[in-house]
Design a protein that fits this description.
The protein has 658 residues and is mainly beta. The chain has five helices and 48 strands. It starts with 5 loop residues before the first helix and ends with a strand.
Length: 658
């Protein structure tokens, strides 16, 4: 745990233990622990640590009882959402000689919960462990989920010792009434939507991607590799009548070996949602890794899972220039001779103008200038009647000349595409892609808003910031209209982060260079407020910008570093949380892959950034946490879990805002 000191202390304590065992080979490990812990100097107040190592004292300490609580395996207490009561099993162990009439007192050190209990242990032998049932009640469910308590141990002949420990409170969802259970309904035999590996549940289904945020139970898909036919079969599970029902048809991807993603989008502009499925496929020598002919396969399917374009619904793409940058991908309406109007992937990449789009003129060399351009994939029918997707660019030489002319730039000024902004369904229908370009050189660059498509270019010049190089484009959730907006962030220095939304910029600066911003996580806005979540090495920080200025709130973050130069942290997902009957920006925090089985919302309550007790849930061993879903506009997001109960799988939507 970074900054807790355990990694730094471990080699010193290990060396002390080795010296003790080296001198006393038959010494039990509990005795080694007792000598090191009980001989330590100057315990640190407020910590459940023993203090500074005293190696000489460890060799000379007297043979006495050593009764102490063991906290290592108890980091979470589950509470009942109906009663707000919780039970915390506290283990107490004797590392020394037998002890009699030991008195243990437990007291709360946090105002958010109440506990005050005394226990008398008549006899506790060497190495014996007793479990004390610490019963408590939550007084303030809106308080932060991390709480503290104190344990006092009075051992006759030894005296009084005090220990403090922090743990977290989380809702026991198996006892919770604020849950929507959604069963699966299959056409015939149940599909394997989940499985268990190493006694842990794993999801085999994934969420169908969508262009813009949606309300309600999401749609899922289940892929299956069919080796006999060298294909992938995809079943869909759609919400209907309070269930996730298996679609009667399936999408079959010929030659596919690995599924990449499934997106629901109106591909042929007929008003109904279709599916664009992207996979890795192989057409020959597939068993030979060196000789295998692999390519990216795009297949188009209607909502009823029929090939959208009949026999021409499977397209191949061989990345000759580069692959598609999925992070910057949007969709462009193109008009084709063979398919009519169709939506194809568009993205930004650093590259040159494709040879097919070069202007041919006498004594003129092809333009090989590398630049950040908008590319798209155009479907063409080859000589064999197969559909190939070839790379085209909207950023042609003529396009660049238009941009220079519109902003009064010189012929030597660079024109670089920087960001593709968020795309609405209306943008897609009208064939629009909104972008930000940079024109000029160095600090004299101008930033230009561009609306482009295959029909032409619409320039709306305005300066966003003097220089956006090094900035990151964020999808900002709009609290007012429940849609996406755009924001930008960039590191001005190791300790300064610049954030930009809605024509204004504001910054975060740290006097401590170690606590500089690492990266931005999410952004939100409404009519008069802008929120940006980002992380430093030690904290999760929220910058709230309004007419009154910028307010910073921070919360310590859990990080682990097991390998040199690496750092692991929780998974974050932007959500709407509900506080005091008002939607507020928040982060869904998933800790299940790092340190615990807790998922929670981190949000602002009473002017403080915290993970409220009532919005923290324990993921039981029979469940797997998945991406949160927004079940209604009024209530914000809910936790989503795939659970195995009564010999069948369910989707559980936990409504933490209620």
């Amino acid at each position: 745990d970074i900054l807790s000191g355990t990694s730094q202390a471990a080699p010193f304590i290990t060396a002390a233990a080795a010296l003790l065992r080296g001198n006393f080979p038959r010494m039990h490990r509990d005795e080694v622990t007792r000598r090191i812990v009980d001989s330590a100097d100057a315990p640190i107040p407020g910590k459940s640590l023993g203090g500074m190592l005293n190696l000489k004292g460890a060799f000379e300490i007297a043979n006495l009882p050593s009764v102490r609580p063991t906290f290592k395996n108890f980091a979470v207490a589950l509470y009942d959402g109906a009663t707000n009561n919780f039970l915390y099993p506290l283990n107490v162990k004797n590392f020394g000689i037998d002890a009699k009439d030991v008195v243990v007192t437990i007291e709360s050190k946090s105002a958010s919960f109440q506990v005050s209990q005394d226990y008398t242990i008549p006899l506790l032998r060497l190495g014996e462990v007793v479990t004390l049932k610490m019963e408590g009640q939550i007084l303030d469910p809106s308080a932060n989920n991390q709480v503290k308590f104190k344990v006092t141990v009075n051992t006759p002949g030894v005296g009084v010792k005090t220990f403090e420990h922090e743990f977290r409170l989380a809702r026991d969802i198996l006892k919770d009434n604020n849950i929507t259970n959604v069963p699966f309904e299959f056409v015939a035999d149940p599909l394997p939507v989940g499985t268990f590996r190493d006694n842990e549940p794993k999801n085999l289904i994934s969420t169908v991607e969508v262009l813009t945020p949606e309300i309600g139970i999401p749609e899922f898909y289940l892929p299956r590799l069919v080796k006999e036919t060298n294909s992938i079969e995809i079943k869909f599970l759609r919400p209907q009548d309070g269930k996730l029902k298996e679609s009667p048809n399936a999408a079959i991807l010929p030659g596919a070996t690995q599924l990449l993603n499934v997106t629901r989008i109106d591909l042929n502009f007929d008003g109904s949602a279709d599916y664009l499925i992207r996979a890795i496929a192989c057409s020959r020598d597939c068993e030979d890794v060196a000789k295998a002919y692999r390519y990216i396969q795009y297949s188009l399917w209607s909502h009823d899972l029929k090939p959208l374009l009949g026999a021409k619904s499977v397209w191949s793409f061989i990345p000759s220039l580069f692959n598609v940058d999925v992070k910057s991908q949007r969709y462009l309406k193109v008009r084709t001779k063979d398919f009519g109007e169709i939506a194809v992937p568009a993205f930004i990449e650093l590259g040159r103008i494709p040879m097919e789009q070069q202007v041919s003129a006498a004594f003129t060399k092809p333009d090989a200038t590398p630049a950040r351009r908008v590319y798209y994939l155009e479907p063409l029918v080859n000589e064999k009647g197969e559909i190939e997707m070839v790379t085209r660019t909207l950023s042609t030489g003529h396009f660049i000349d238009e941009v220079r002319s519109a902003v009064n730039a010189s012929v030597n000024d660079e024109v670089q595409m920087m960001f593709l902004l968020n795309q609405t369904k209306e943008d897609l229908q009208l064939g629009r892609i909104n972008a930000v370009m940079s024109v000029g050189k160095g600090y004299l660059r101008k930033n230009v808003s561009v609306t482009l498509g295959t029909e032409g270019l619409d320039l709306k010049p305005f300066t966003i910031l003097q220089n956006l190089w090094g900035y990151e484009h964020l999808s900002s959730l709009d609290l007012a209209n429940h849609d996406l907006s755009d924001s930008f962030t960039g590191l001005a220095s190791r300790s300064r982060l610049i954030m930009f939304q809605s024509g204004q910029s504001y910054s975060y600066s740290s006097q401590n260079s170690v606590e500089g911003a690492l990266s931005t996580i999410a952004s939100f806005k409404d009519e008069s407020n802008e929120y940006t979540f980002f992380q430093t090495p030690s904290y999760l920080v929220l910058a709230h910008h309004s007419e009154q200025g910028t307010q910073l709130m921070k919360k310590r973050i859990n990080r682990f570093s097991f390998l040199p130069g690496t750092m692991f942290n929780d998974t974050f997902h932007p959500v709407f949380s509900k506080s005091n009957n008002k939607l507020t920006p928040g982060l869904y925090v998933d800790e299940t892959d790092i340190q615990s089985n807790i998922v929670s919302f981190t949000t602002v309550e009473d002017g403080e950034l915290k993970s409220p007790i009532r919005q923290s849930a324990y993921v039981p061993p029979i469940c797997k946490a998945m991406n949160p879903a927004r079940m209604s506009i009024e209530e914000g997001h809910s936790l989503t879990m795939l659970c195995f109960e009564n010999r069948q799988w369910f989707m559980k939507f936990v409504h933490l805002n209620q």
